[in-house]
Amino acid sequence: MADKEELKGIQKAAILLIALGPEKSSLIFKHLKEEEIEDLTLEIANTKSITPQVKEKVINEFYEVCLAQQYIAEGGIGYAKELLEKALGSDKAMDVIGKLTASLQVKPFEFVKKTDASQLLNFIQDEHPQTIALILSYLSSGQAATILGALAPEKQADVAKRIAIMDRTSPDVIKEVERVLESKLSSLVNQDYTIIGGVDAVVDILNTVDRGTEKHIMETLEVEEPELADEIRKKMFVFEDILLLDDRSIQRVLRDVDNNDLAIACKGSNEEVQNAIFSNMSKRLAEMIKEDMEFMGPVRMKDVEEAQQKIVNIIRKLEDSGEIVISRGGGDEIVV
């Protein structure tokens, strides 16, 4: 095979697999589709000889593409271009980036994950709720929560609902949304149908947004989609759900809670929740918290919600670490 020929993609892949050897190549085959394996096997069989120069060129190109993919995942295409220019020179960097747009596959909206949430909000807040839901489904729960909380109240529940009921989205639709966001990576989208959204996704987001946004969305969904709201609520934990904890778990939670936050949080809670909390602390501490609640006077609802959210975050953290168990029903009962 002449090293001056412009090799096709499948030829480069065959040469690379030959260079890697049978053991490593067999591991790669496990991740390929059946028709891809057939095509590559045929190409390898038809490859009679490879000059050292061609082999070295293919391996170097593969390394450069892998390097570029890593840089893109770490900091976006601008970051990748900057590092590649330092490593390979300006012309070579542009050549590698150019090849990426035709051959490399990265996760949809990878570039968005490196964008500040407030800046991204400016781009998408006026988009259709379905478009916003699609984008938020690919973001981290923290990013998505920031954006969801900043949307107009009448849009929040609609977007949350669309995330929850989202199942599979065509790559063509994903590409179009990326194009609208002026993404230079639109051609890099994986062509497989991608599973996104769902109830778990919206729960992660609602668990992260501020309490006011969470309450508004859930109240709206309870009216418009009661079954969906019920499914979401079963997977969520809000401050009032402290009643789902046993006494030992409540006592463990209270050890990590600031007394001032507890007083403010209880100020906006019902008597049943207050009793569950006070009955799991010493009488002296309970009296002190009650006095603080009495003398602090009126408290802004925003401050109450923030204090309650802090305690909920502690509860979720303790549940994640296995220190406490939240009995949500449906098989979550505790056996002792």
Account of the 3D structure:
With 336 residues, this protein is an all-alpha fold. It contains 18 helices and two strands. The chain has helices at residues 9-20, 22-29, 34-46, 52-88, 90-103, 117-124, 129-138, 141-150, 153-165, 171-180, 199-206, 211-224, 226-234, 247-255, 259-267, 271-278, 283-295, 301-320, and strands at 168-169, 194-195. The chain has a two-stranded antiparallel sheet with strand order 1-2. Helix 1 crosses helix 3 and helix 11 (199-206) crosses helix 13 (226-234). The chain is elongated, with a radius of gyration of 27 Å.
Quick synopsis:
This protein has helices at residues 9-20, 22-29, 34-46, 52-88, 90-103, 117-124, 129-138, 141-150, 153-165, 171-180, 199-206, 211-224, 226-234, 247-255, 259-267, 271-278, 283-295, 301-320; strands at 168-169, 194-195. The protein is mostly helical and 336 residues long.
